[in-house]
Amino acid sequence: MHSETQINSHELNNSPVLQRSPDKKSSPRALTLAASAGLLFLHLPMWIIFLYAFTTEQKSYQFPPPGLTLQWFAKAWAREDVWRALELSLQVALLSTLIAMVLGTLAAMALSRSRFFGRDVFSMLLVLPIALPGIITGLALRASYGTFDIPFSFWTIVIGHATFCIVVVYNNAVARLRRSSVNLLEASMDLGATNFQTFRYVVLPNLGTALLAGGMLAFALSFDEVIVTTFTAGQQTTLPIWMYQELIRPRDRPVTNVVAMVVVLITTLPILGAYYLTKDADSADGTGK
Amino acid sequence: MNSAALTLSEPNRSSLSAWVYLHPRSVLLLLLIPPLLWLGVVYLGSLFNLLAYSVFGLDEFTGQITHELSLNNFIELTRAANLDVILRTTLMALMVTLGCVIIAFPIAYYMARYTKGKVRALFYLGIMLPLWSSYLVRVYAWKLILAKEGIIGWLAQTLHLDWLLQGILSLPVIGGPSLSFSPIGTFVVFVYIWLPFMILPIQAAIERIPRSFFEASMDLGASSWQTFRTVTLPLAIPGIAAGSIFTFSLTLGDYIIPGIIGNSTMYMGQVVYLQQGTAGNVPFAAAFSLVPIVVIGVYLALAKRMGAFDAL
């Protein structure tokens, strides 16, 4: 049965039928056009942000920009409030990512190979924080802080972020664990390694890049999260909240443009990193947000 | 933890290791406890707390939350103004989902059937980047584009299509003074922001269709259109349904996008946000936030019937 399917697919690959099939030829022009247009639609707006960071116009969103300048970068650099917001955002993202990495890995190890009562409920619980609109998570946490008289602090933000970051790490870790062979573990045990040695020398190196990738995505997600944060931050200002306030009541458009560009760069790098870490092992992972 | 375990003396180490081996259930429990405590107690506890708030009330004179059970908040929900908000948001979520499907399908189809190697990697990255990053910045970008003096306005002027733009903006209900202050603008930005969530599941569904299906269909004399309609589309439906869960649910709860791009008509997320913030009425906000959950629940039940979860 097994060899049969193999032969079949082998034959298919070399069959003249497939070479004549449309897949091997160029795609229909209308389809190529629609696909490229869609991809452009997805990306052009991001590049426009970069253009506006250099415009000399500061009162309106005039296009094309009347002139280009670098002065807003210096101006943004000198802004204390932007630096403080950036610092808070980085701290929150780092700590939330760390918590999510620990909890997500534990959850992945528990769920990847064993079946137990309530397993499906637990895996649904993991996804719930990002499947439900952020406003519900945010309001629920806020209501609970109120109930237990917990004052808003750095930690109240971190709790919210870590909650929706767990599933990101979990998704990456569980996909890798499912793909790695049980034989490896058995071989390690047969050769006399203890459970801990097996974990340290077999499981962890195998899991490492997947964890790192999950962590990077979690970082990017946390760094620009705004919906849950507005409910859990109180008077504190993370970088996205700073931007949100500027969007509602624009005071300093040029500086906002520069900050927007910086946010794009800071979140793009870890996503690129995560992609390159996982592309060989499991190209489609980390996509199940 | 591992290095400590490794440096333990030999008998200790092996007995601990043996214990781990002999008690898989206990190990499972130890692994489960931390994430279970976090999600089960902190998160789920908060959700139930929210549920509890929805049956509390607000003292009209002191503005304090009264802990007496009542269904007043839910009766309040059925007022015409609130029903209006619920209906408008649900309609917007449906339109956005439809818009996403139309734009996402060609991209997903092209990606699944005509790309490989480097080009496919480029497509993946092109979809992953906007999926994971810069939600707020991407909304802001549209403020720049849709503003009266922005790119769209400039394009319309340069191409002498001003009359078209003005015509669209003067439409009743969906028009407005400029694109960034009209429901059309809100719709476009919603579609733009949630589009990646629709592309990936459709792409995965199409990729799973064996190539022999297409060949069989062609061999049996079907035209490209017939193949698409009777083979590709039915098999892609689970992917569409899976993607639509995201686009639908995310649109229902969002309060940022309609607040930045759009006229002053309210969407569910905004009402919840304003009720808990400016009005300080957390109980009513809690009751209102249950509406998206119910709507999503109904939607999920429908999606499940269509086989959406097979593609997850």
Q: What is the CATH class of chain A?
A: Mainly Alpha
Number of helices of chain A: 13
Number of strands of chain A: 0
Rg on CA atoms of chain B, Å = 26 Å
* Beta-strand content bin of chain B: under 5%
Q: Give the ordered list of helices and strands of chain A.
A: HHHHHHHHHHHHH
CATH superfamily descriptor of the largest domain in chain B: MetI-like
Number of strands of chain B: 2
CATH topology of the largest domain in chain B: MetI-like fold
Question: What Rg of chain A is obtained from the alpha carbons, in whole angstroms?
Answer: 24 Å
Largest interface, with counts of residues having CB < 8 Å to the other chain, equals: A-B, 99 and 105 residues
Strand order of the largest sheet of chain B: 1-2
**Any idea of the CATH topology of chain A?**
MetI-like fold
Query: What is the helix content of chain A?
Result: over 70%
The fraction of residues in strands of chain A falls at under 5%
Give the class-level CATH name of the largest domain in chain B: Mainly Alpha
How many H/I helices of chain B? 15
Q: What is the subunit arrangement here?
A: heterodimer
Q: Give the CA-CA distance, first to last residue of chain A.
A: 36 Å
Protein name (chain A): ABC transporter permease
Pfam families (chain A): BPD_transp_1 (PF00528)
Keywords (chain A): Cell membrane, Membrane, Transmembrane, Transmembrane helix, Transport
InterPro entries (chain A): Bact_Polyamine_Transport, MetI-like, MetI-like_sf
Can you walk me through this structure?
Chain B: It is a multi-pass membrane protein. Chain B: Its main location: membrane. Chain B: It comes from Shewanella jiangmenensis. Chain B: Belongs to the binding-protein-dependent transport system permease family. CysTW subfamily. Chain B: It holds the Pfam family BPD_transp_1. The complex is a heterodimer of chains A (289) and B (312). Chain A contains 13 helices and no strands. Chain A has 289 residues and is mostly helical. In chain A, α6 crosses α8, α10 runs antiparallel to α13 and α12 packs across α13. The two termini of chain A are 36 Å apart. Chain B is mainly α. Chain B has two domains: 37 residues, no CATH class; 233 residues, MetI-like fold. Helix content of chain B is 76%, strand content 1%. Chain B has a two-stranded antiparallel sheet. The N terminus of chain B is likely disordered. Classes of the chains: A mainly alpha (289), B mainly alpha (312).
